[in-house]
Design a protein that fits this description.
Strand content: 25-35%
Shape: elongated
Distance between the termini: 32 Å
Largest sheet: 3 strands, antiparallel
Order of helices and strands: EEEHH
Number of helices: 2
Number of strands: 3
Radius of gyration: 14 Å
């Protein structure tokens, strides 16, 4: 059987061309960052506001989350 464990998380944001996009960071039991994910609804809103493709905004937000992220 697969066992799942809830990971500790924090919530931050990145700003892409003036648009705020929420970022969730998950930490392993040793405190190491195991994942960062952007909030899809924020990506959709930013892409719409900026008139840019979703994939471009998502990629930029994910890159910013990993580069600007702490720990």
């Amino acid at each position: 059987a697969i066992r799942k464990h809830e990971l500790a998380r924090s919530f931050d944001e990145v700003v892409i061309d003036g648009q705020q996009i929420a970022v969730k960071t998950a930490y392993g039991s040793d405190g190491e960052v195991v994942n960062r994910s952007v909030e899809w609804s924020d990506v959709v809103a930013a892409a719409d506001a900026l008139g840019q493709p979703l994939d471009r905004i998502r990629a930029r937000a994910e890159a910013a989350a990993w580069t600007e992220g702490t720990t």
